[in-house]
């Protein structure tokens, strides 16, 4: 299967994953004819290169290039780039790598098996790999399946992925793992005191809702909150066409926490998990909320609307306020929130914010360890005045265009007052061009780093 390893005991062919400085030492281990063949092909072990080795019955194995250290620093999941080039067969790695480097390459192999073929037929790679001895293959496969779920949700177009469909995905996951789930929908949001979720979603014929999933009966408490804006027109501050083109991915925060929740539950981590997803469509009709409206949030804070296209922080605010009423040990929000984050760090490196500097250090170390890049930005206190409009407690879209990712994070932090440890991730959730193990389209960001950090963050 593309997202799993071959069954143990399957006959296999060797793959030598090597750097240029290791090439000659590897060639002398081969049959002389194979070594001569590799030299004749000009194989230089450059990053992602491949040389198939001949044998009496056809292909006898392969050499795959890791590239030089500078190339490796620029490229993740190199083995994933090789997989699609390999003919159908089962392979085994004949290269010793450090544990973290090995896991990265094996995940690259699994991730490269992902295809989104719901609307058009696509061929998954047919090459399979045996998991090396000593590797926790089940854990890696679980991570790959969680990542695939995130990608599927983001890649599904908005006509088939509205608030109801996002709820269905959460319900399916809850059923799979025996989690409890409750959903507040439509005008029930007003009765339940979620006024900003309702305000953002009320103009759509597809009812807004808040999904609340709980799993686990003991252990530290972790709450994940994911922005589920299933399509964002910008509301009355209508986006131009070029900016609206990727807005099916504006539920990427929800998709990422759902994928992370799948990993956590499938791995049976000893914690109590809560997942909150405000799921809405930011549409336009006569009932749409307006610029200069002042909304009262669940927290009681009033918010002046200075741009209806800054709606993600509004729906998150009500969900965060709910989570904060029963404070967990750690709260995490994930959202495709600001273009400012992309300007600052580009599509590959999401910024994160943390109220606890020790948590930030643990996460940064985990990020590097599992090749899931993140970069800390500050909750910069002097910018608090930028989100205080005077006529209301908060401004959802400060003028001036500066520090947009930071002011958005400061806005969200105002709704988390009882939970000391809170982290916010401003992700992109999209791979704009094909990369090894990451086709163009939806992609998970930050989930693997969080998963790797949880044992230390929560003392599991």
Automatic annotation (TrEMBL):
The keyword Manganese applies. Residues 307-314 form the Cytosol aminopeptidase domain. It comes from the Bacteria. Pfam families: Peptidase_M17, Peptidase_M17_N_1. This is Leucyl aminopeptidase. InterPro entries: Leucine_aapep/pepB, Macro_dom-like, Peptidase_M17_C, Peptidase_M17_N_1. GO terms for cellular component: cytoplasm. GO terms for molecular function: manganese ion binding; metalloaminopeptidase activity. GO terms for biological process: proteolysis. Keywords: Aminopeptidase, Hydrolase, Manganese, Protease. SUPFAM superfamilies: Zn-dependent exopeptidases.
């Amino acid at each position: 299967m593309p997202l799993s390893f071959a069954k143990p005991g399957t006959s296999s062919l060797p793959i030598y994953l090597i750097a240029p400085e290791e090439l000659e030492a590897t060639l002398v281990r081969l049959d002389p004819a194979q070594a001569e063949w590799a030299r004749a092909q000009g194989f230089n072990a450059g990053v992602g290169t491949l040389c198939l080795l001949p044998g009496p019955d056809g292909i006898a194995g392969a050499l795959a290039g890791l590239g030089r250290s500078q190339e490796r620093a620029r490229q993740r999941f190199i083995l994933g780039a090789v997989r699609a080039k390999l003919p159908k067969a089962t392979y085994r790695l004949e290269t010793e790598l450090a544990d973290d480097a090995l896991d990265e390459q094996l995940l690259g192999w699994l991730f490269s098996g992902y295809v989104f073929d719901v609307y058009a037929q696509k061929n998954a790679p047919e090459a399979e790999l045996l998991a090396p001895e000593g590797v926790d293959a089940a854990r890696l496969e679980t991570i790959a399946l969680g990542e695939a779920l995130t990608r599927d949700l983001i890649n599904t177009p908005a006509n088939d992925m509205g608030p109801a469909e996002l709820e269905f995905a959460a319900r399916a996951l809850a059923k799979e793992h025996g989690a409890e789930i409750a959903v507040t929908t439509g005008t029930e949001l007003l009765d339940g005191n979620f006024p900003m979720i309702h305000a953002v979603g009320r103009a759509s014929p597809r009812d807004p809702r808040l999904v609340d999933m709980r799993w686990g009966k003991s252990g530290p408490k972790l709450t994940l909150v994911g922005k589920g804006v299933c399509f964002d027109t910008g509301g009355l501050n209508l986006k131009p066409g070029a900016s609206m083109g990727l807005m099916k991915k504006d539920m990427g925060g929800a998709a990422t926490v759902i994928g992370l929740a799948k990993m956590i539950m499938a791995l049976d981590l000893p914690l109590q998990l809560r997942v909150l997803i405000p799921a809405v469509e930011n549409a336009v009709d006569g009932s749409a909320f307006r610029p200069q409206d002042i909304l009262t949030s669940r927290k009681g804070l009033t918010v002046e609307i200075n741009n209806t296209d800054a709606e993600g922080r509004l729906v998150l605010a009500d969900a965060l306020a709910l989570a904060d009423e029963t404070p967990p040990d750690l709260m995490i929000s994930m959202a495709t929130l600001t273009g400012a984050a992309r300007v600052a760090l580009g599509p590959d490196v999401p910024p994160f914010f943390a109220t606890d500097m020790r948590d930030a250090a643990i996460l940064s170390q985990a990020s590097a360890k599992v090749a899931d890049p993140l970069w800390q930005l500050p909750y910069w206190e002097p910018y608090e005045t930028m989100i205080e409009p005077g006529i209301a407690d908060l401004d959802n879209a400060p003028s001036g265009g500066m520090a947009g990712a930071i002011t958005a994070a400061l806005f969200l932090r105002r709704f988390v007052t009882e939970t000391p440890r809170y982290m916010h991730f401003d992700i992109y959730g999209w791979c704009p061009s094909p990369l090894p193990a990451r086709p163009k389209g939806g992609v998970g960001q930050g989930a693997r780093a969080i998963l790797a950090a949880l044992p230390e963050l929560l003392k599991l």
